[in-house]
Amino acid sequence: MAKVGDLVRDTISGYEGIVICRADNLYENSTCNVQPKGLNEQGEPKTTYRFAEERLEVVEENAVISLRQIEVKEIKIGPVNINVADH
Questions:
Q1: Quick check: 87 pLDDT over 50?
Q2: Domains parsed from the chain with CATH numbers
Q3: Longest CA span, the chain
Q4: pLDDT tops 80 at residue 2
Q5: Whole-number Å distance between alpha carbons of 42 and 55
Q6: pLDDT in tens, 7-17
Q7: Which parts of the chain are beta strand (E)?
Q8: Dihedral sign, Cα of residue 15, residue 30, residue 21, residue 44
Q9: Are 44 and 36 in contact (CB under 8 A)?
């Protein structure tokens, strides 16, 4: 099962990228939006495509740090609160 932040490859087309969104559907197959690494010729993020989950194989788990993996600590300095992320 692919999770947000995993590096995956489509077994049919070979398209590879990071899962940026996962949708679990009640009556249909679960789907994942896959964002490839890098930029296109115009300097913009490459096109994201949606795949049925059963077409995807996980190449690397947790290939990017998701916000769920970061522990945020709050530091109070006088009237100011500062959030510091540890991972």
A1: no
A2: 7-86 (2.30.30)
A3: 57
A4: yes
A5: 29
A6: 999 999 999 99
A7: 7-10, 16-23, 31-35, 49-52, 56-60, 71-77, 80-86
A8: positive
A9: no
